[in-house]
Amino acid sequence: MPEEQDHGRRTAAQGSRIDTYIDRYAARAAGMVASEIRALFAVASRPEVVSLAGGMPYVTALPLDAVGELVADLVARRGTVALQYGSAQGDPHLREQICDFMRLEGIDAAPDDVVVTVGSQQALDLITRIFIDPGDVVLAEGPSYVGALGTFAAYQASVVHVDMDDEGLIPEVLAETIASLDRAGRRIKFLYTVPTFQNPAGVTLSAARRHQVLEICRRAGVLVVEDNPYGLLGFDGEPMRALRADDPEGVVYLGSFSKTLAPGFRVGWALAPHAVRDKLVLALESAVLSHSSFTQLAVGQYLATQPWREQIKAFRELYRERRDTLLGALEALMPPGCSWTRPAGGFFVWLTLPEGLDSKAMLPRAVAERVAFVPGTGFYADAAGVRNMRLSYCYPEPERIREGVRRLAGVVQQDLLL
Ligand code: PMP
What we know:
alpha/beta; 8-stranded mixed β-sheet; 14 helices; 14 strands; pyridoxal phosphate binding; aminotransferase; PyrdxlP-dep_Trfase_major; transferase
């Protein structure tokens, strides 16, 4: 085909949004689909809409001037390192600092077992890439983190959900699910869990259940992938002991500075048994050669020079006030028949609507009333979650949270009358 004609064809196709490459994608691309609710969220990001939808950390609370100074200082003093390629495994000094950070959750780890990643999202991608063949089973809480489900779908994993209650994953259900998959000859590659202040459910796996879950997985030879970006954002008492603290060989731990510092740095990490770590480093190298030296050193500089423990405490207090505001408003305003979780940390509340209601169908009406949430179905790989929604309290100011719940309660009330 002459070049100009081909070009014309593409331009027309772009205009009409017909995908002329549709028959050429790899099979795995079939699992890469845009969220149906993305278009609504474009509307939901208008200032008049109270968004209880996004899980964006409140970075406004950071000492932005101090961060600006440390970045300038970094370039002045260590610019030739910060602007150069770095090691695929990640900056050695930052990996030491990450080990100090994880000690707060009872983890005793060596910097050599840490791989620095582009947020914990990249760690999720790499773990899935090295373990999953199409059709392999990943066990995940029901509901589970939408970003992880997207990654699992991209690698054609088959996700099997395990029920939770207010204490997190139910060990008996986990054991039964593993047994029935074994009987069916299915290959379970790992359990993906967010045990602390779960996204989206806001629940935390109790200490007693942590041991049971580890024991069940150990006996069945199932690797545990513990995703823990919210662990230090608890509102009461000391941080929970991480699963990884009690089973270094059976758990890959994923951490992130996105919630305790800022997601814009895109610095997360994986802590893995030696052999898995080696595969992760090779997979990372093939994906991106190496992480950004610049942001790794900036995070390292922040940890070395700023009062980060106080900053995390300030975040906890801010989020606690917002959690209290959301729970108080739900209690005061939601119609009877609704129920919701009461998170002890993190960003999210999981709400269940009365029988017969559908949160996805409700969303356009909610957006018209200037409030947004995430419908529950996005957090399941099957068709569950119709009556659920995720409400985030991390970003809006308390006054706006109250107003958002007032609007939402009105929409639910109207739906009940339909
Ligand atoms: N895991 C969970 C449970 C999350 O909530 C998030 C962020 N929403 C991530 C992983 C990814 O975070 P990041 O890549 O910014 O570290």
